[in-house]
């Protein structure tokens, strides 16, 4: 795996753009009304705890993927089932996000474009970005954020 270096500011830009994109598309804590900030804070704490668990496991098993060290911890049989469910879950999430993004894009910007075409274009952009690496993604995000601030 290549060693990529991004600055703290570039990480901030990526997180900021992700949060703003998510906040605009996904109504968070709709029924919480004035306590929505508390719901988001609790969810953030839960996410941070999960991050600490994954981070600790990645240091305990430095040369293994999550699907590999689950098999080491739980045994071959149960570990393979959990690893398969893990892959299945994140495949579902990726498909769901793709569908939601495509439908939102078609609703607001391109109502006459077929969903398949919009999603295919998005998949190609994602594949290209993943191929180029995280540094290119952060530079693009940095450019995108600075462009929006000045104009």
Task: List the defining traits of the structure above.
79% helix; 151 residues; globular; mainly alpha
Describe the model.
The protein is mainly α. The chain has six helices and no strands. It has one domain (8-150). The protein is 79% helix and 0% strand. The longest helix has 33 residues, at 76-108. The protein is globular and about 50 Å long. It starts with 7 loop residues before the first helix and ends with a helix.
Our measurement of the CA-to-CA distance between the termini, rounded to an integer number of angstroms, reads 38 Å
Structural class: mainly alpha
Order of helices and strands: HHHHHH
| Integer count of domains | 1
Sum up the overall morphology in one term. globular
Please tell me how large the radius of gyration is. 19 Å
Q: Provide the helix percentage.
A: over 70%
Contiguous helical run count: 6
Beta-strand residue percentage: under 5%
Please describe the biggest sheet, giving its number of strands, its sense, and whether it closes into a barrel: none
Low-pLDDT residue spans: none
Number of beta strands: 0
Mean pLDDT over the full residue set: 82
């Amino acid at each position: 795996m290549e060693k990529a270096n991004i600055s703290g500011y570039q990480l901030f830009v990526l997180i900021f753009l992700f949060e703003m994109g998510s906040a605009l598309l996904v109504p968070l804590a709709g029924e919480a009304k004035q306590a929505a900030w508390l719901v988001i804070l609790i969810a953030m704490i839960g996410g941070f705890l999960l991050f600490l668990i994954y981070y600790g496991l990645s240091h305990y098993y430095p040369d293994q993927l999550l699907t590999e060290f689950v098999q080491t911890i739980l045994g071959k049989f149960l570990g393979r089932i959990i690893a398969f469910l893990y892959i299945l879950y994140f495949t579902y999430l990726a498909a769901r996000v793709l569908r939601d993004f495509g439908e939102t894009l078609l609703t607001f910007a391109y109502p006459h474009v077929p969903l398949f075409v919009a999603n295919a274009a998005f998949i190609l952009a994602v594949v290209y970005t993943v191929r180029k690496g995280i540094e290119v993604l952060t530079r693009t995000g940095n450019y995108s954020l600075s462009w929006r601030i000045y104009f």
